[in-house]
Amino acid sequence: MKKREVDLEPQYSIEEDRKGKGKRTVDLNDVANIVLFLAAFVGIWQLVFTLGIWPKVSMPSPAMVAESFVQLIQNITLITSIGMTMWRLAIGFGILFVVVMSSVFSVMISTYSGINNIPPIYIRAARNMGARGLSLFRYVMIPAATPSLIVGIKQAWSFAWHALIGAEILIAASVGLGHILLVGREFQLMDQIIASMITIFAIGLLFDRLVFSKLEDKVRDRWGLKQGSE
User: Fold this and answer.
1) Backbone angles phi, psi at 68, to 5 degrees
2) Would 191 disulfide with which of 11, 64, 94, 169, CB 3.0-4.6 Å?
């Protein structure tokens, strides 16, 4: 019996190491694909700028946008604007009308769809085991609808994020990413506008990858909806 246990230990460690390497390989592939895409995008952008299809005022070069990034960071305008916009988003779900109206509807639709699409066998099985009323809703229906609810929250964040930027432009906020866009439009600073747009996109992508995607993966894994690769 002892010999069998000793023989099995290296097999488990090798298998775990193989799975770990597989996960790292997938991550490296994703990073490589993103880098290649960005390199191709910047290359095409530079080519269009070099050909002079549009005037420099309307189509600045990647170097000009990078210089605008540096200037916005050096005078703390970009950092302050990001902080203020994120603060407005954080409190917006409680008191900013635009944020609430742009996000609540998405969450309501996703929740209703998730509950409406619960397999009937779940409800029948729970009722056979004595679940009724509030306990049925709390312990069966809500958990079964959670994956759809997470998708709704993810969409709500996206809608609220873009709606907030638009609200900052409309009300001419003195600080915020919308303010940077507004100033860039008024003074025809296209490099500053593109830098702001890249920042808005990057923040949205980071939240999607680091917060909502991981939360969605955990929920799907807990409810057996995520298929593991061998």
Assistant:
1) -65, -40
2) 64
